[in-house]
């Protein structure tokens, strides 16, 4: 029913971006390897959401070039880009009063001619993606009645329904309970797509991602596989926290143990 997913790489070279006169990103070089699950990390305000929006062409960069595969993202027709890259923003609202299945079907828009109705195939793809996020039973509920975590999972189903090669997710697990967070991360990890996700939970990033990019004050502070990126020095420099980093004996992936900060009396 769904096509066989195939990822594409994403590269950003020397990206700088100011929003409303505020310099937010400065000279960002990064690579999201084909088929990887790349985690975009960094403290609050480091520029993660802004970078994801810039990569997805929601605005004009001051400088720099972004490529999906060998194509310049800023030169692709919008519809062609939407067939290749799906973005799920943080707190992305869908204001119109739609039913859940109709929200998911919005993902088919780049695949249809204007004003063309949903086909049986479109609906089958949308239902299948709702099943994958465990929400098929809510297909006919009104969107506005869903919980925050349910809305987040519907947005992922909508993005998957777009059948992109690159999935860009801004904090996809921030409303999810631990079971659904693990389920969502495992699903995108095994999707066959290239995935770039901003994440705050560093241990989840260590467990699922094969590549990391760490932003600090609008610049790339480190990038590479989790076992190279997660060092006590990096965590102290970027997050201002003390932590021990162990390698899990079975998976070989890093696990971070944070030390509670001293609180003045
Ligand atoms: N329109 C704007 N005008 C002024 N400053 C902005 C604007 N949008 C973002 N910023 C600032 O840019 C910086 C980066 O914001 P961004 O949302 O990209 O960070 P983030 O790393 O995603 O943060 P968080 O982890 O808190 O979600 C922040 O300091 C933010 O206040």
Tell me about this structure:
Helix content is 30%, strand content 26%. By secondary structure, the chain is α/β, with parallel strands linked by helices. Helix 4 packs across helix 5 (148-161). Strands 6-7-8-3-9-10 form a six-stranded mixed sheet, with helices on both faces. The chain has helices spanning 48-55, 78-84, 100-105, 120-132, 148-161, 178-189, 202-208, 226-229, 232-239, and strands at residues 10-19, 22-32, 37-41, 63-68, 71-72, 85-88, 166-170, 194-198, 211-216, 219-224, 243-247, 254-258. A hairpin with a 2-residue loop joins strand 9 (211-216) and strand 10 (219-224). It has one domain (10-258): P-loop containing nucleotide triphosphate hydrolases (Rossmann fold, 3-Layer(aba) Sandwich), CATH 3.40.50.300. The structure holds adenosine-5'-triphosphate. Residues 19-20, 22, 24, 42, 44-50 line the site of adenosine-5'-triphosphate.
């Amino acid at each position: 029913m769904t096509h066989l997913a195939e990822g594409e790489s994403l590269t950003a070279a020397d990206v700088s971006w100011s929003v409303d006169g505020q310099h937010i990103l400065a000279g960002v070089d990064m690579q999201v390897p084909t088929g990887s699950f790349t985690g975009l990390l960094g403290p609050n305000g480091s520029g993660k959401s802004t970078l994801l929006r810039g990569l997805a062409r929601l605005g004009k960069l001051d400088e720099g070039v972004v490529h999906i595969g060998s194509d310049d993202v800023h030169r692709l027709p919008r519809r062609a880009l939407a067939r290749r890259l799906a973005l799920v923003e943080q707190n992305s609202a869908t204001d119109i009063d739609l039913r859940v299945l109709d929200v998911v079907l919005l993902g088919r828009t780049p695949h249809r001619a204007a004003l063309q109705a949903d086909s049986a195939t479109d609906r089958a793809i949308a239902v299948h993606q709702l099943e994958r996020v465990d929400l098929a039973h809510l297909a006919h509920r009104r969107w506005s009645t869903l919980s925050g975590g349910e809305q987040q999972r519907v947005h992922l189903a909508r993005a998957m329904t777009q059948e992109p090669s690159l999935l860009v997710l801004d904090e996809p697990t921030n409303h999810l309970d631990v079971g659904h967070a693990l389920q969502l991360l495992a699903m995108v990890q095994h999707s066959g797509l290239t995935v770039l996700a901003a994440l705050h939970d560093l241990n989840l990033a260590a467990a699922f991602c094969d590549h990391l990019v760490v932003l600090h004050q609008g610049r790339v502070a480190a990038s590479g596989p989790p076992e190279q990126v997660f060092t006590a020095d990096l965590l102290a420099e970027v997050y201002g926290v003390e932590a021990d980093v162990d390698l899990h004996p079975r998976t070989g992936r890093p696990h971070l143990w944070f030390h509670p900060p001293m609180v003045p009396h």
